């Protein structure tokens, strides 16, 4: 990471990625047992050493192609400032109801504190009540922090801090808020959904549900992680900035299975004119509505049901060719590959995307659509010059990482795209 500040700017899902925020998965992802894996929002427990090797491939490709920021480095820098440190610790003490640990945390060095805030802090057991509670942690590990996509989002020049649906991910948002608010690294406006939600428990917003399609179009998933009340707040904030027309397209999502948690698990952009779709939900008729909202000079002037994401976008001049996750032939392949984040792509430039190597039917479909398949290792070793390829999928190994419940889009938070 270099030192100069950058201005946040994201106006699309596919513009050339210039800066991205990552978190290298550490011991926090293993700090669980089958008894509490579900509470950690995991369907299985990862083998960390393999997950890290897989993550190295993602990290390697992104470091070659854009500027990479690591959350724990930024957090450590923030904690070097005593005032910011105290503000963050107080907030955590209050939100996670651990006032008794504040003095201890304040005495830790910035690096050590950053580690504990991410990897968790075991509870001091000196009362019978604590003993019988069978709780191992005072501060739970941030099991899901390697999915940096979810706790904050950059929309235009704004950083938005999310209000997570599950308390086990709440600290991620507090940390992201401290990082943006410090203004040490990024120039941007900041709005925090927690702060503007007025403690309304119905307000929930997570970044995996938010796609910036164009500077005037947001596509938002509405399901277990992002509520209608949350979307109404985003609409209000999004309306306030700038003048003229804006468009919000909302796609309802099923509550289960858990692979439908975010919109980016069923729909992601691959190029200016191509999207990856999970066909049963995006192209077939289903009980899940697509709703179009038009906003003019700060006011919602129209809300109507619209026949699907592709149709809504086409009306706004964004004509997308869908590529079917799992291939067109077999619904089981579609279901299985969607489960392993087969629709979750990150574009690092128009038509240049990253995905897991395991989803072979999806890759075959992409190949039929003119995408060259190259491995992350070959890109890292400079066997390919990405500038000379027009459309490509860079594949990373993914046996362990997808067990956490997400893919390349979930694991990356774009800070700047051109
Ligand atoms: N943008 C995404 N789809 N993120 C996936 C997050 C998965 C994570 N286990 C959770 O349940 O929160």
Please outline the helices and strands.
Layout: E1 6-7, E2 17-22, H1 34-37, H2 48-65, E3 67-70, H3 71-79, H4 82-95, H5 102-107, H6 110-119, E4 121-122, H7 128-132, E5 137-139, E6 152-155, E7 158-161, H8 170-182, E8 186-187, E9 189-192, H9 193-196, E10 210-214, E11 217-222, H10 228-240, E12 245-252, E13 267-271, E14 274-277, H11 279-282, E15 290-296, E16 299-306, H12 309-315, E17 321-324, H13 331-339, E18 346-349, E19 352-356, H14 360-368, E20 372-375, H15 376-380, E21 392-396, E22 413-417
Parallel strand pairs: 1-8, 2-3, 7-9, 11-12, 14-17, 19-21, 20-21
Antiparallel strand pairs: 2-22, 4-5, 6-7, 10-11, 12-15, 13-14, 15-16, 18-19
Helix pairs in contact: 3-6, 3-8, 4-8
Bound molecules: arginine.
Explain this structure to me?
The strands form seven sheets. Strands 10-11-12-15-16 form a five-stranded mixed sheet. α3 packs across α6, α3 crosses α8 and α4 (82-95) runs antiparallel to α8. It is globular, with a radius of gyration of 21 Å. The two termini are 19 Å apart. The longest helix has 18 residues, at 48-65. The protein has helices at residues 34-37, 48-65, 71-79, 82-95, 102-107, 110-119, 128-132, 170-182, 193-196, 228-240, 279-282, 309-315, 331-339, 360-368, 376-380, and strands spanning 6-7, 17-22, 67-70, 121-122, 137-139, 152-155, 158-161, 186-187, 189-192, 210-214, 217-222, 245-252, 267-271, 274-277, 290-296, 299-306, 321-324, 346-349, 352-356, 372-375, 392-396, 413-417. Helix content is 31%, strand content 24%. The mean pLDDT is 95. It is built from 15 helices and 22 strands. It has 418 residues and is of the alpha/beta class. A hairpin with a 2-residue loop joins β6 and β7 (158-161). The protein has one domain (6-417): L-arginine/glycine Amidinotransferase, Chain A, CATH 3.75.10. Arginine binds at residues 41-42, 144, 147, 149-150, 208, 261-262, 264-265, 404-406, 410.
